[in-house]
Amino acid sequence: MEATGVYYRPLAYALHRAGFAVYVVNPLQVRAYARSLLTRNKTDKADARLLARFLAQYRADLTPYEPLPEALYLASLLVRFAEGLNTQRTASLNRLHAWRYAHPHVHEFALSVPDSIQSLRAALYAEARAIVAAYPLAASWVSALQTLPGIGPTLALKLLAYSGDLRRFHSARAYAAYTGLTPRIYQSGEMDASARISRIGPPMLRASYYLAATAATRTDSVQAALYRRLVDSGKPKKLALVAVAHRLARAAWAVCVR
What we know:
By secondary structure, the chain is mainly alpha-helical. Helix content is 67%, strand content 5%. The chain has a two-stranded antiparallel ribbon with strand order 1-2. β1 and β2 (191-197) form a beta hairpin. α8 (172-179) crosses α11. The longest helix is centred in the first third of the chain and has 31 residues, at 70-100. The chain is globular and about 55 Å long. The two termini are 32 Å apart. The model has no long low-confidence stretch (mean pLDDT 89).
């Protein structure tokens, strides 16, 4: 199955527990494979055939799916749900704002939405913290992450929720690649090479490290020095922050797994 949306997670988890061999593949891989075959149709049946063909050809190169420890799995679900509420909050407020002109009393409901959603997010994070605290390994990782500059209790929990079991990464470089903060080089013939981050991996994980980098450059002299050195050399400020975020991602793996 492809790692898309929210439905593959419980399905993969249930199938694995039922004894099936499960493979979860990156949608970008399957999309590139489909282009290599010059496929024209996209239907559920065609996608199923494509995945079966992809697995038959590349099974030896794929890693079978292994579910997270139950505590990490549950905490991850709660944190992802809590973060998803932010998007729903904006959508709900926009919808209520549009209705305000047709029915002014709707504005009263709009005023209560932010507090209600914030209260629910706080409850979800509290439950996630309780689950992680009862799992010694995860609790130690959350504590270790907080030793890094720019990372507090909530951000540490969020990083863990979107990273999963850090032991599955064999090196800091592999983990940084998973975050999508590593550069991807483009060069052909006499064209000068250019590099942008790959953006392969959970967008929320990348955003969390970027947020940590922003805080770290204000509070930590080492990270601030790196940021200033890059900016002074002509690099854009956002690119300098991405470099700090990349360094923090590698450090996160090191403090948790080594």
